[in-house]
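Both lines are given unchanged directly below:

***
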Amino acid sequence: MRARLALLAAAVSVLTLVAFLVPLALLVRTVAEDRATVRATADAQSLVPVVGAADPATIRLTVERLAVESGRPVSVFLPDGTVLGTPAPRTPAVALAARGQSLTAESADGREVVIAVQGRPDGTGVIRTVVPGAELTAGVGRAWLVLALLGGLLVVISLVVADRLAHTLVRPISELSAVSHRLANADLDARVTPAGPTELREVAGALNHLAGRIQELLGQEREQVADLSHRLRTPLTALRLEAESLGDPQDAARITSAVDGLERAVTGLIRQARRQRPAVGPVGCDAAAVVADRVQFWSVLAEDTGRTVHRELASGPLPVAVPAEDLAAAVDALLGNVFAHTPDGTPFTVRLAVTGNVAAGARGAPAGSRGETAGARGAAGGSRGEVLLSVADEGPGMPPDTVRRGASTAGSTGLGLDIARRAAEAGGGRLELRTGPAGGAEVVLRLAPPAATAS
């Protein structure tokens, strides 16, 4: 924008200067020609008294002296045909002047000035002088150069002024753009200092008002979510007391552990709801540790419901660009869907591998009564490839439009798969749905390593 305004100012300045300087330059040339012509005419007219009354010898001396002083050829044509002074042919202008008419005519040598002198006893005499082209244009080139320099200086001044004016417009616009980008990146404290023309000041004020309103609404939403989450602590406390009153220590410990996990999730939700700024610096976790922990947790419930769990988990560390809490919530959502939407006794498989090493996860002998297999130790640790987390069941499958927030065909909230999708996409990955090897549903999370995420 700044360059375009400067270009516009330059174009207007050049057009204006051309409109004024070209006629002025032509006028300068005309004035120079007229000045030289008037000077030559005055010199020629100074000879009129001599030519009209003196003898030829006196006329010759006077004409020769004037030619030397003026630097122009001067000739006198007497009625008897004698030419005194600078030799010159009788031109049509001389012939016309011999009839008594003085005039100025253009010739190949320059501008010809002829003056008719009447009153001689033998007829009309003619005085002729020629103004050379160099004298006609004397000083014109210098004047044109001065005009050109003046025009260039005016163009430069107009460009400087236009650039300063453009700066007063572009700087507030750039600040508006920078603040809008900061707001888009969740920096809700960003504000614009109103500057520039009235219209830009109004826009800056409107943007500041919008940012303040967004901050106010988000604050209210955070408090509402935090309050709602805090209300869950009361039933959790009652559930913990009920668990502690159970007679079977193992059942009490198991239920208490589940309550502890739920309470940690609620606490994390409150902290996340009250977080005013996005996390700074790289975030991530070890996918192998998080997935193994959550699969171990759900394996207890799988045993109670008669489900066979096949685990094909690569050994860690497998760093991914997803916080541990988010990845744990995603795994819980995927495994919770298996328990919620498939009949008791339906087997399911959890695979964790690195891109290019998926096959390695299938190696290993069955281990344990639940049909588990040893993890793919060779898909290991230091790899920086994409990490694949797959949860496949042998149930009836799922509709194709399941991954839509709030949409569910099974009477649930419809948030589980969306939680997993957002967790993967926040770290630069994605979620895929497809039919599993046994005909049921298979959900694949492709998780990017921390270095692959955009800052």
User: Anything to note?
Assistant: Residues 2-141 form a domain with the Beta-Lactamase fold (CATH 3.30.450.20).
